[in-house]
Request: fold
Amino acid sequence: MKFLLGVCGIGLGHAGRSVKLAEMLTSQGHDVFFTSFGVASDFIKLNGYKVYRIPPYEWYSAGTEPNWSMSAINGAPIIHRIVRGYKKILKIIKKEAHLDYIISDTDFPTLLTLARHNFEGCILTNTLRIGVLGKQLLEYGVTGRILRPNLKFLFNRKIDALFLYLYKRTNKVYCFDFPPPYTLARHNILPDESFDGELRYCGLIKGKDPQELPSKEEIMEKLDLNPDLPTIYIGISGPNKYQLINFFANHYDGCKDKNIIITTGTPSSSLPTYRNQEFRVFHWYPVREELLKVADVIVARAGLNTISEILTFGKKSLLIPELQPEQMENAHSLESLGLCVTIHQKALNEEIFNIQLARVLENNQMTKRLKEYQSLCRRYDALSMITNDFN
Reply:
């Protein structure tokens, strides 16, 4: 079969999991090509796949925060770019003859393509109910520029209705979460009879099995790390990463008794890797799973790929979610389950970071909870479930 994978290009989360899916599809003899934009296109190309660039679209932002009210009020330019991307995809499909199947990883131009045309396809998502997320921003005390009270109706009804309409037009949706009662995020629990298509909770993206990698001792020797110190892996990516990277690289002095590894998630960067006695800074590390295996604590955002890696490797984590609803809900859900500790980005300073990091390092109960969810990750293999449906 010949597959088109339409990937949202905002950050690397969508591209990372879609490339893993493409690897499994190609290993089974299928033909795969991509459409995407931004840094995701660079990442896909770096992994050896054909990728067509489409016009980029992003939400309005206020500093590091997505400004939902501005995105709603001034949505015409965003819609225009999405429609341009949709029209380009139709031309690409015509050029790529004999297309069998379209997989949309929460990418609006391919969602629109599936909704308006009679193509076989499915949607991959980790957010079933955007409207619920908008409501939850208010629960977490995030108001003002991010979500104005008079837009609650828009989020609770209109946005949910739009996504459910697109889901129904596709008729098959894979949700990257565990089925009830193990579901991690509240926004992935649909009310009864809200969706009459095929909805499959497929679990999380597993990636490489920790047992397939070199031993922790071998990786530490390769990276020239002190085996007597705890290792903290700080993996920050996404559109607003540099504020946090700057904090850790230039303003964080609490690293004298720790091994610190930082990756910036910049696959096309030509800047050299930086290192000194305490820090190892990589703009790109080709086998990221090695850093996950060697880490005692992972410091990261709260996107789906990051959560999948944390639970697959059973690692303690300190999460600093983007000020956007999905990541805040992910972090809140994991912390309520005893699987991580979180810091609100606006509260981040060296004192708070050191206090919370010490909490994580000393938390033995977290280790037990992580083992429970690590077994769930082995039980629910998202990529195998999806690809098995094509064979």
